[in-house]
Amino acid sequence: xxxxxVFGNPVAHSLSxxxxxxxxxxxxxxxxxxxxxxxxxxxxxxxxxxxxxxxxVGCNITMPFKxxxxxxxxxxxxxxxxxxxxxxxxxxxxxxxGYNTDGIGLVSDLIAQVSSLQGSSVxxxxxxxxxxxxxxxxxxxxxxxxxxxxxxxxxxxxxxxxFSRNEVQAILTDELTSKKFDVVVNxxxxxxxxxxxxxxxxxxxxxxxxxxxxxxxxxxxxxxYASTNGAPRVSDGLGMLVGQAAEAFYVWTGKRPDTAEVQVxxxxx
Length: 269
Ligand code: ATR
What we know:
Layout: E1 2-8, H1 16-27, E2 31-37, H2 43-50, E3 56-61, H3 66-73, H4 79-84, E4 89-93, E5 95-99, H5 102-114, E6 121-125, H6 129-132, H7 135-140, E7 145-149, H8 153-163, E8 168-170, E9 183-186, E10 209-212, H9 221-228, E11 234-235, H10 238-253, H11 260-267
Parallel strand pairs: 1-2, 1-3, 6-7, 6-9, 7-8, 9-10, 10-11
Antiparallel strand pairs: 3-4, 4-5
The structure holds 2'-monophosphoadenosine-5'-diphosphate (ATR).
C-alpha cells in the first residue's frame, strides 16, 4: 500500500483523495490518501513526520504551503517548481523531491479543449503564484505570445522581467481591446470572492476559449461574464485540477491514469 496525502489549510474541501482513489482503481494501485490540515507554523514538522512511515510515498501540497514546500525541497526540485517557486507535489525517492504539476495540468486541459497551443496567443489575467506557475509550461507547449495583465500593473511587469523571455509581455487593461487572444485564462483569486477582474474592453468573442482556473459546483462570475459577452467556449478549472493530479500520480507510481473519465465522474457527482 502506498501512503499518500494532501497538506493544506483549509483542506476539508479538497477533491484530491477522491481523484487519486479513482486513478488508483483504474491503474491497479492500492493507496491510502488522506487530508492533513496543519497549522502554518508546523508544516515542515508535519511533512517530516509523514515521511517517517516507510509506506509514505508522496503528497500534494495546497494553499498556503506551496512556497514553503519549495523552500524545503529547493535543492531537489523539477524545473517547473523552480520557475513557479512553488511545489504542489512531494515524492520521497531516497530524498524528498519537489515538483510543480499545476502548469502541466493547465496545458493538458487547454490542449484537450483547443487541440493545440502551437503558435497561439494567450492572455493570463493575474500575476500571482497561479500565473507564475503556468508561464513556462505554456511556452513549452508552443505558445508564441503570452501576455500578462494584472490589476496592479507593476506586478505584471515584475513577473515578465523575472522570466525575461521575448514571448512574455505585460499588457495594460486599456490595451486589451487592441489584441486578439486565442485563449484567455483567469489566474486571479477574484472568482474565489465572487468578483470579476477588470477586463476593460477585451473582446471575448474573438477567443477560442475563455478559462477560469477556479472550479466550483456553479460557474464563476468570470465564466458567466464570458458566456454573456460572446466567448464561444468557456471552461472552469476542473480539467486542470484533474490534470495536475494525474501528473502527480505519474510521479509517484510511473502510471498515467485516464483523466477524462474522472472528470465525467466528478461532474456527474
Ligand atoms: P495566487 O497565488 O493564488 O495567484 P496571489 O499571489 O495572492 O494568489 O495573487 C492573486 C492574484 O489575483 C493577483 O494577481 C491579484 O491582483 P493584485 O496583484 O492586483 O493584487 C489578483 N486579484 C485578486 N482579486 C482580484 C480582483 N478582485 N480583481 C482583479 N484581480 C484580483
